[in-house]
TrEMBL record:
Protein name, entry field: DEAD/DEAH box helicase
Domain Helicase ATP-binding: 30-201
Source organism: Polaribacter marinus
GO molecular function list: ATP binding; helicase activity; hydrolase activity; nucleic acid binding
Nucleotide-binding keyword on record: yes
Keyword vocabulary terms for this entry: ATP-binding, Helicase, Hydrolase, Nucleotide-binding
């Protein structure tokens, strides 16, 4: 049972949210992601991909604040998706000291840099914004443990694809997990770069 082997805080929150039975995708994907390997995760819409992303990320970070540099990044298509993903974390980060930071594209890059400098555990943003932060040395990556890409179909956009490639070149060692509805050919390209030796979980 995937939920039984999660961090005690997450099990407690799942119980309080009356979520007792994992989806087929969660049953299959959570143990693989927890193993620490790179993973391609494909499942239909509403199959439990975003909730799996939230649970495995928080489990990886042991549901606690550590240091100032981000230990997890969640890459999304746009600001609207970033807000949705941020909201998905809220029920599970309640009663913890974890710092989830939303990189609002509407904010000036210097504002984002200064706020990240104050201390962040999980950073949510678009490829464009995250890459810009890296170029301006406003995003330390030395402490990164997990890098998620949610609804990765948006990477067919050339600008997003190029920004992601640049971002991954700035990361030395990290687990990468890509979530999508289908295994798009453009995602397969990453097997020769940062997704080398990746496992695939499909529902």
């Amino acid at each position: 049972m995937p939920f039984k082997k999660l961090h005690p805080h997450l099990k407690e929150r799942l119980t309080s949210l009356e979520i007792n039975i994992p989806t087929p995708f969660q049953s299959k994907s959570i143990p693989v992601i927890k193993s620490g390997t790179n993973v391609f995760c494909t499942a239909p819409k509403d199959g439990g991909k975003t909730s799996t992303l939230v649970l495995t990320t928080l489990h990886k970070l042991k549901c606690e604040e550590v240091g100032n540099a981000p230990r997890a990044i969640v890459l999304v298509a746009n600001n609207e998706k970033a807000l949705e993903t941020n909201d998905a974390f809220l029920p599970y980060t309640r009663f913890t000291d974890l710092r989830v930071y939303l990189c609002d594209e509407k904010s000036h890059i210097d504002v984002l840099k200064s706020e990240i400098f104050e201390g962040v555990d999980i950073l949510i943003g678009t490829p464009k914004t995250v890459n810009k932060l890296l170029l301006l040395e406003g995003l330390p990556t030395s402490q990164l443990k997990i890098f998620n890409i949610d609804d990765a179909e948006f990477l067919v956009d050339n600008a997003s694809y190029t920004a992601l490639v640049a971002i991954t070149q700035s990361i030395q060692k990290c687990q990468f997990v890509i979530y999508s509805e289908k295994m798009h050919p453009i995602l397969k390209r990453f097997e020769s770069t940062f997704m080398e030796y990746a496992k695939t979980v499909t529902i």
